[in-house]
Amino acid sequence: MNKKFLALAIPNIAANLAAPILGIVDTSLMGHAEGLYMIGAVAIGSMIFNCIYWSFGFLRMGTTGITAQAYGATDNQECAATLGRSLVTALFIAFFIFILKEPIKQLAFQLTDGSSQDVLKNAAYYFDTRIWAAPATLCLYALTGWFLGMQNSVIPLFLAVFSNICNIILSLLFVKNMNMGTEGVALGTVCAQYISLITALIIIYIKYKNIFSGFKLKVLTHIEPLKAFFTVNKDIFIRTLLLVGTVSFFTAKSADFGEDILAANSILVQLGAVMAFAVDGYAYAAESFTGKFIGAKDTLSLKLLTKISFKWGLLTGLVFALIYWIGSSYIFAIFTDKELITSEANTYLIWALVACLINPISFIWDGIFIGATMSKAMRDSMIFCTLLVYIPAFLLLREYGNHGHWLAMTIFMIARGICMTAMAKPIYNKAS
Q1: Residue of 166 and 40 predicted with greater confidence
Q2: Please, are residues 119 and 259 in contact by the beta-carbon 8 Å criterion?
Q3: Residues contacting residue 386 through CB under 8 Å, at least 6 positions apart
Q4: How far is CA 104 from the centre of its chain?
Q5: How confident is the model at residue 38 (pLDDT cuts 50, 70, 90)?
Q6: pLDDT band at 308; cut points 50, 70, 90
Q7: Rounded to an integer, what distance in angstroms lies between the CA atom of residue 125 and that of residue 127?
Q8: Is 98 exposed, middle or buried (0-12, 13-18, 19+ CB in 10 A)?
Q9: Residue among 300, 238, 208, 397 at smallest CA distance from 1
Q10: Higher-confidence residue: 78 or 395?
Q11: Contact (Cβ atoms closer than 8 angstroms) between residue 394 and residue 258
Q12: Over the stretch 231-257, which tens digit does the pLDDT of each residue have?
């Protein structure tokens, strides 16, 4: 089991780490530009799109769990239908994002009213360009989830690496050669997303032609699987919206402490994202295997999977904490050459180290819950942790400045781990 788990997890880790690497490159490009506002603008712009796209993370998460269970039950028709439902849903969501783009931008900027006009102006340039990637980005979420549900983590790895290589090259071209600033960073992302989407569809046509042989579109409208699809995804949407809202609120409120703190916090959040994406590689493997074992009614393997997942997730978090602690000065130099920002980042580094040690618990549970399609439990735990833990903690601790800001987020993540641990028992009943 350990070897099979790592065989699926390691490509996921490599694929996931490609995402924060892109964020690091974007932040670095702006962090070495003139003016503190450039790095803040990218931080705000990225926060808006993280909030938008991560809110629809069910396109990946829900697709993985449902596909994995269909795969475990050797139901090719349902595997194909799940991808179809996910892609259609992704395109509908993208259509509504286009319709609501101006209200979304205005609402996001109101939440960041502590930012300077230079930050907001350049964040607007970033937003107006990157919004055009919405259809490709959301469809790629669905495709990635489907590949993982089909127990294939190599294709998502290839797509992630390929996409980010394209993105980095194009961003460097637009920013360095064409002096496009934040617009260039965003345009690089737009182009890379569409290139990756076309590539993914070509791969499906070549590799999975047999899965779709005999597939009929009317299957997409079958009531029971359609109801199950939207029930699971509705709960994951609410859960993810609250999680993304909390993280985005944290970034937005960082602007209240000034441009230097906003920039420092955005760097520390990037470090947390690198660790999170690495641990999520194990969580994605846990999703795939959990769905497969539940579909095959294999309780013993599911319990063993849980132990292995937590072992590797917590160990990885510890390794990242040590790397950040020992190499912080070198790491911060990658992001920016501004001494004021690196000084602030060093002041609050302890919170990024603590996050590496405690956050993997909830990340691993996320994967297991998703694979089990236990979306209601995920939703309920997130409602509790956001409304009854994070918000009160933020209100009580905000008088302590940025340290209080970070402590509220830390308490929130601890509460998530405790709640999900307490709610995990029904998962194993589903496999019996």
Answers
A1: 166
A2: yes
A3: 242, 243, 245, 246, 412
A4: 20
A5: low
A6: very high
A7: 6
A8: exposed
A9: 300
A10: 395
A11: no
A12: 777 888 888 889 888 887 887 788 788
Alpha-carbon gap, residue 390 to 406, rounded angstroms: 11
Residue 319 has a pLDDT of 97
Torsion of CA 397, 403, 408, 412, to 10 degrees: -160
Tokens 């205005």 identify what position?
A: 106
The H or E element spanning position 257 is: none
Gap between the Cα atoms of 144 and 277, Å rounded: 14
Which range, of 27-41, 82-96, 199-213, 357-371, averages the lowest pLDDT?
27-41
Please tell me the distance from the alpha carbon of residue 88 to that of residue 217, in angstroms, as a whole number.
Answer: 11
Give the pLDDT confidence of 262-281 residue by residue, as tens digits.
Answer: 888 988 988 998 899 899 88
Q: What does the alpha-carbon distance between residue 43 and residue 185 come to, in Å, rounded to a whole number?
A: 12
Question: 144 or 178: whose pLDDT is higher?
Answer: 144
**By C-alpha distance, which of 189, 264, 260, 328 is closest to 35?**
260
What DSSP designation does 1 have? -
Q: Which of 276, 271, 283, 312 is nearest to 378 (CA)?
A: 283
Q: Kindly list the distances between the CA atom of residue 209 and the CA atoms of 86, 89, 214, in Å, as whole numbers in the listed order.
A: 18, 22, 10
DSSP secondary structure, 146-203, as one string? HHHHTT--HHHHHHHHHHHHHHHHHHHIIIIIT--HHHHHHHHHHHHHHHHHHHHHHH
Q: Is a pLDDT exceeding 80 seen at residue 67?
A: yes
Cα 342 to Cα 356: distance, rounded to the nearest angstrom: 20
Q: What was the pLDDT predicted at 196? A: 94
Query: Nearest CA to 374 among 317, 430, 314?
Result: 430
What is the DSSP secondary-structure string of 281-304? HHHHHHHHHHHHHHHTT-HHHHHH
What tokens were used for 15?
A: 């694929």
Chain centroid offset of residue 233 CA:
16
Burial (0-12, 13-18, 19+ Cβ within 10 Å), 307: exposed
CA–CA separation, 167 vs 186, rounded Å? 9
Contacts of 107 (CB under 8 A, 6+ apart): none
